[in-house]
Structures are given as structure tokens and as C-alpha cells.
Amino acid sequence: MTTDEVLSKLDSDQKGISSMQAKERLSQHGPNQLESTTKPSPLKIFIGKFKDYMVLVLIFAAIISFIAGETTNAYVILGIVVLVAIIGFVQEYKAEKAMEALREMVAPEADVIRDGQMSTIPAADLVPGDVVFLEAGDKVPADGRILEVTSLQVIESSLTGESMPVEKLAQTLPEDIALADRKNMVFMGTIISQGNCRAIVTATGLGTELGRISGLMKQEQAEPPLKIKLQQLAKRQALLVMVISAIVFILMFSRGLPVIDALIASIALAVAGIPEALPFIVTLALAFGTQAMAKKNAIIRRLPEVETLGSTTVICTDKTGTLTTGEMTLREIRTYRKIEVTGAGYDPSGQFISQGAKLEPTEEDLARILKIGVHANNSAIERANGGWRVVGDPTEGALIVAAKKAGILDKIKDSSSRFIEYPFDSERMRMTTVDEVHKEGYIVSMKGAPEVVLSHCTKTTTPNGTKTLTEEDRRSILADADDMAENALRVLALAWKPISNNDPVEVDCIESGLIFAGLTGMMDPPRKEVPEAIRVSKMAGIRTVMITGDHRLTARAIGKELGIGNGEVIEGVQLDRMSSEDLREHIDDVSVFARVTAEHKVRIVEALKARGHIVAMTGDGVNDAPALTAADIGVAMGRTGTEVTKEASDMVIADDNFATIVSAIEEGRRIFDNIRKGTSYLLSVSFAELATIFFAVALGFPLPLLAAQILWINVVAEEFPAIGLALEPSHSDIMKRKPRDPKESMPSRPLMIYTLGIAAAIVAGTLGMYIITLQSNPDLSYARTVAFVGLGFFTVYNAYSSRSLQESVFRMNPLGNKTLLMGIAASILAILAVVYIPFMQFIFETRPLSSESWILILTTGLVVVLAAEVMKKILSGLR
Description:
Layout: H1 3-9, H2 19-29, H3 42-48, H4 53-67, H5 71-92, H6 98-104, E1 109-114, E2 117-122, E3 131-135, E4 143-155, H7 157-160, E5 166-167, E6 185-186, E7 191-203, H8 209-216, H9 225-254, H10 259-273, H11 278-295, E8 298-300, H12 305-310, E9 314-317, H13 319-323, E10 329-334, E11 338-341, E12 352-354, E13 357-358, H14 364-375, E14 380-384, E15 387-391, H15 394-406, H16 409-414, E16 416-422, E17 430-437, E18 441-448, H17 450-454, E19 457-462, E20 465-468, H18 471-486, E21 490-499, H19 507-510, E22 514-523, H20 530-539, E23 543-547, H21 552-562, E24 570-571, H22 572-577, H23 580-586, E25 592-594, H24 598-610, E26 615-619, H25 625-630, E27 633-637, H26 643-648, E28 651-653, H27 658-698, H28 707-717, H29 719-726, H30 749-776, H31 780-801, H32 818-836, H33 838-844, H34 851-878
Parallel strand pairs: 9-23, 9-26, 19-22, 23-25, 24-25, 26-27, 27-28
Antiparallel strand pairs: 1-2, 1-3, 3-7, 4-5, 4-6, 4-7, 8-28, 10-11, 10-22, 11-12, 12-13, 14-15, 16-17, 17-18, 18-21, 19-20, 21-22
Helix pairs in contact: 3-5, 4-5, 5-11, 9-10, 9-27, 10-27, 10-28, 11-27, 11-29, 14-15, 20-27, 23-24, 27-29, 27-30, 27-31, 28-31, 28-32, 29-32, 30-31, 30-34, 31-32, 31-34, 32-33
Protein name: Cation-transporting P-type ATPase
Organism: Methanothrix soehngenii (strain ATCC 5969 / DSM 3671 / JCM 10134 / NBRC 103675 / OCM 69 / GP-6) (Methanosaeta concilii)
Pfam families: Cation_ATPase (PF13246), Cation_ATPase_C (PF00689), Cation_ATPase_N (PF00690), E1-E2_ATPase (PF00122), Hydrolase_3 (PF08282)
């Protein structure tokens, strides 16, 4: 629409609306703020931890223990439940602040024209039809259409991903245009960096683009895969326990045993089948993982996401500030030769190189370019927080940094003073200054769009001085500019001329007859550590997808430089024309997306997930927050990231280093490996206990283990080694493996075969020793003690063999996991305490063992170790 049509549609005019109209519209549209969501209370979050299925199984085990009269062990189990809940509560207490952070982005006040007069009102009171005045430094309070504009530039990177300030205008634009290209609009939450404007408010609150993002963030977060798998495991285990317990009860009752005896046997069986330590060990492994990651600048906000990160198959990453430095850098200069500029960001370290040779700043063509870049410039560089920052326009800042690299910035500034400035605007497309320079007199300096600057030049620089600028020269220079633009460089042309103090200073005279000095190409360069991180990710079978709000050429050039994708780029407008089915079909073939909005990012993430990928989404801007919420794991940048993004994320990278994500993935893989080891270890013992009791009862023998004895092994003897397994160091090949199949169950089929094989060995040893002892010694308590101690020591052997599910335990460093060794020692002491401390003998009905029994137990235990070695060979063959 034209501005007049917009004013008419909103029933407003250049003098704004009346106070009465504003009051009516405020009641109709509501306040200009983002909707508040009801946050769960801390108590509700804590109680929610007890709804986990595995925790419910633990509570069931505690109830069974109370029924069996084992109140001490029941309290131990309940203590484990509470500890698991507390750890989860602490990690997730602040997880739902994204909406509040979004609301804080709204400007608190706004300059508005009402009743024909300018006044300042709370931004929450703005309504559609209000005319607002915005100037440099203001945060835009609502979405609006520009009515009048003066050299306006707006920083929209947090909303659109565009790395450069966007120049705004008031004219009409095509209807079908991407958000980042709507240059006649200003949007809530963005910042005015230069100039001023008057704009009519077109949308407030949830109706704004920021409000739409707010709505996108309301979607439910997907359950972490690990949590789903553990719940499925708990359900299967509970069903198995109930079925076998019922069979045993029926079997014993049918033999004429008293109901109470049959019930006690069933309870013992149920206790045996519940791996009480599993939720605690999983939580502990995750908690230790978060501590390890925090030391590497990766802060995990939700425990289960550690494992999710480790199973990642795709990293979707924003470009600006994540893959790149977020700082414009001069990378190339073209005079009569091509000059490469090294270094990245605002750090003024680097060199100027031509044909492999380092150039000195005194070289005439280079020195002239640098001087023009400093004279036609209003930016500055200064130290900040141990680094450097540019004050002013980032593009101008790149020229200032280049002069600083050459070591001549201060010399240029000290030897010159500004006399005249003709500023840059969207119509002129150039900036011109006149400076009085020591020993040179008055110097005109111009920078701007290549075709515009060339139109004001009559001469050009050559190795032998200056010469008349021909049409062939113009075509060659513009071809160079196009070539630089194709490589995603932001191209500026620079020109100059000397004048005398008697020359006229009218703009037409000043800006004519200039000498073309050269072209400069800037870009937001990749971080130096990113290429290696992407290479390691590829080796680990993880695909990197770049999603940016920047232009197509910029995205393609950065993607090519970093080795992302095959050169194909899909833009947001193309995404708008693609159905969800089309996008899913093409999503595995395209790794670079440009000019995208918040909705596009969410669609890309959802398409990848629909293809079965586990998606990690990184970002720093407001426009990234919905996609971070939609992804399996959202990764926010700690330094440059907005509060909105951090609160919407599962993990925050404190140093904004893409390589830290790869390090976190490695840690996630280690943690999941250790969870698999712990799960296999605990399940093998539970299965062994179930089978030992089941087969003993089926064969007509008395119960080989009492409920209290089983609980002691499950809650005490098993747990200490399991803690050690949770802290097992990673193996050297961990980032050379392909990601796991996200649909793989817990435990997987090969791991279940391994687990059952170990369980069979433990059953054979325990039941065999029990029957042999019972036949040679009529004391049932003694035979049960042999079975109890045997099962406990077999558990210890199993724990040590479980350090690796691939590598032979005999090839591993025996002292490589000291925590496990201490856990094994504690487990052995706990078993011996039950056998040899008098009051514990009474509680657990045990007897001291003879040397013959000890020899039988220790030698039989070797069967478990050998079985583990055989099963590892079988497991490697099933992969």
C-alpha cells in the first residue's frame, strides 16, 4: 500500500489519532505487550518429578519392601527417589522463562503524536493507527509502516538474522517479499542505529512479528529420547516382574504351600526384578556430565538433553555470530592489483598480502585506500572487555580496523581534521568528506556503491600514477565489483582528489573529477575454529545445516568456505511455496537456507525430525528461539545470545564457540555409552535374580535368596560399582562412530543379547552353588548365604567387565577408572558386612562361610568374566 492508503485503512493521518480513539482501540486490541504465561510453581515442578514411570516403579519397590517388613531398605529406596527428584528439580527450575524475556524486549516508552502533539507514553499503551517518532538508539516499540524517513538504519539481526544494519525507506514494495526485505517497515524489539523516522503503528502485542514468535514458542517441547526409552524399559520390566511373580505365586500355591509363603516368594521375585539403582545412576551420569560440560563452556539446562546431544544427527546453525564472528571484516582490496587482508573480526591484527608477498602500509595504492577509508568515516574502534569493539556502523568499522592493522589509524586521524561532510543516504548512495590534511592540504574522500562512485570519477590509479578513466576501465572495475559480490563481499568503491582552499565547496563541485582509488570487500568472516569443528562433525556422521537470514550469495559463500552443503541454497520465499511434504523430500539434499524467518526455521527443524533425525538447533537471536524450542535440543550462544534465546534453549554455549558444541556432543556420546553400560550391568543382575528364584521354585527348591538379601544387593552392593561405570572415561574412537539410530530401543537388540548372556552365566553360577551347598549342608541359611555372597561377587565381576562393551577387559588399563575400583571395594565390604557383622547376620539371616565355600565362589565367578568376553565378541558381530 501507499502511505496514504495505510493511513486511510487505519483511520489515522499524519497528526496521529485522538486520545479518545486511542482509548477505544486499546480496549479493542489490548495492551501492546506479549502475553504472559502461567508458570508452574516450584512445588509443582518438584512433584512432577515423581510422575516418571521408573520412579513409580521404585515407589512400588518401596511398598513391597514395607509389606515384606524390610522398612530400612524401603527407606533407602525412597531416599533414592527423593534424590533423583531433587537433582532433576534443580536443573529444570528455571526452564520456562522465554515468554518473560520476550516481554522485556518491548521498549518501555514511546514518542507518539496524539491530538496533533508529540508526547511520551508507556509503550504498552500504543495502538494501531498511532504515529510514533523513532531516532538513533531507540528500541522500536511496535510494528509500523514508515511514513517519513531520514537516513534510517535499523539493526534487525536478532529478529531476521541479517548481519548488517538495514537501510529503511518509505516507498511501496512488492507484496510477496521476505520479512528481512520489508524495508518500509520497522519491527518491535529491533534497534534504530542511525537516522530517524515517523511511522504509523500497524500491529501491537501478539500481532507483531515478535508476537508471532511468542506464539510459536508455546508449542509443547518433545520428550527427550532417553526419557522415553527409560519409560518404555520400566514398563517392560514391570510387566515382566508382575507376570513372573504371578506365575511363581500360582505355582507355589498349587503345591499346597500356605498363601503367606507363596506371597513372600512372589514379593522376593518382584524385588529381584526391579533395578532400583537405575534411575539414580542415569541421573548421576547426566549430572556428572553437566559438570564436565560446564568446565568446557557448555551449560546444560535440562539433564536428559545431555544424552540427546550425544545422539544428534544434524546440527542446524545460525550463521551470524555462530559460524561467523558477527563482526564485519575487510577481506579484500582491489586497486590495480588484488590485495588480501588477513585477520578476522575487530581484532586489529593481520597483514596485507599481494601475490603471496606481504605489503607495507606505505605502498601508495594501499595507503591511499586506508586514508580514504578513515576520512570518509564516522566510526571508531575501542577496547572493551579484554577485546575490541566498533562504535558506529559495522561497515565503516571494518575500514577503521584495517587502518589500525596497518598501524596508521592514529597517524591519519591526528594529521587531519574534518572540514565538510556530505552524509550517506539511500538516494545518494555515497558519503563524501573534505579534510584538511597535514602536508597535503584539502583532500576530498568518497566511499559508496561502485557504480555511483565511478560516475563521479574521471581518473583512475595505475602503478605509474593516475590516468584518464576510460569506458573499458569502468567495465573492468564493475566486473571486479560483481566478482567480489558473487563471493558474498559487501563492496564499497573509494575515490579522492586534492583541492585548494579557493575551490568552491558546493556538493556538485566537490563530488566531480575524482580519482578512483579502488574497491574494498567486507564480510562477516567464519570463526577460525569452525572449519575443524565441522570436519570432526562430519567424521562423527553429523550433518551441519546453515540457516540464516542473510542474502543468498552470502550464505552460499560462507557455506562453501566452511564445507557445508553442495552449493545449493533455498531461500525463504521458496520455502513459502513448498508444502510440508515437498520440504521433507528435499530436506536431506540441502544444507544451506537463506533469507528465512522464524516460521521457516521451525519448518526446517520439523522436516528434519520427520525424516528421523535428532536435531540440535543453535542460535543467538530472537528469531531463533521458536526453532530452538522445536528442536530436540536447543543450543543458545552465551555471549551474543538474547535472553529469549537462552531461556528457550536446553544448552547455552558460554563462549559462543561452535567447537564447544562438538565437544559437548562427544561428552554426550560418552554419557550415553556409560548409561548403556550401567543399564546392561543392572539389568543383567536383575534378570539373574529373577531367573535364579524362578528356576529354584520351579525345580522345587526353597527360596535361594530372601527379599532383604536381594534388596541389599540391588540398593547397596550394585550401586557403588554402577557409580564408577557412570564416570568411565570416553574411548578414543567415540567421535569416529556414526550416530546411533534414534529409533534404537533401550537396551538395543545386540545389547539385550549381551545382557541376557551375562545374566545366564550369573544364574548358572548362583543356582549351581546354591544347589550344591544345599545338598552337602542341611542348613538352609548357609546355602542362602553362599548364593547371596556368590551373587554379590558375580555382580562385582560383571561391573568390572562392563567398563567396555566392545573392548576386552584384559586389554584395558586396570587403573583407568579409580572410581569404579573404589566402588567395587565398597561393594565387597558391604557384602562382607552382612556375612560377618553379628547384628547384620541376624537381620539378613546369614552365616559365616568356610574357606571351601570362598574358593567355590571366587573360582565360579571367573565364568562371568569369560562369558563377558565371549558376549563382547558376539556383540561386535551383531553391529
